[in-house]
From TrEMBL:
Chain positions of TPR repeats: 44-77
Gene3D superfamilies per record: Tetratricopeptide repeat domain
Listed name of the protein: Tetratricopeptide repeat protein 9A
Xref: InterPro entries: FKBP4/5/8-like, TPR-like_helical_dom_sf, TPR_2, TPR_rpt
Record lineage: Eukaryota, Metazoa, Chordata, Craniata, Vertebrata
UniProt keyword terms in alphabetical order: Phosphoprotein, Repeat, TPR repeat
Length: 102
């Protein structure tokens, strides 16, 4: 892959480059990360980035799954912890809205 973004580091990582763009294409980030996970199921960065992508796409249960898998590998990573907290908050709000709608 050609290095097209000056913010990307060498060697270029497509998901990392995509996450640095001003308008992030989370669908593409998710696709790249899932490809990595098919080959390397325990890849921390791919797990974390998949969780972030799913979060921003609004798939909070899937986001939580990938983020929790990432946390198993690096339990003190502050970014993982932050996204887990954000995701759990979104899930709670969604459940409250569903209850209020009944």
């Amino acid at each position: 892959m050609k290095r097209t973004d000056p913010g990307c580091v060498s060697p270029p990582s497509p998901p990392a480059c995509l996450l640095q763009m001003e308008l992030v294409n989370y669908e593409r980030v998710k696709e790249y990360c899932l490809k990595v996970l098919r080959k390397e199921g325990e890849n921390f960065k791919a797990l974390y980035r998949s969780g972030v992508a799913y979060y921003h796409l609004g798939y909070y249960h899937k986001a939580l799954h990938y983020l929790n898998e990432a946390r198993k590998q690096q339990p003190t990573d502050t970014n993982v912890i932050l996204y887990i907290q954000l995701t759990e908050m979104k899930l709670r709000r969604s459940a409250q809205r569903q209850e209020e709608a009944l």
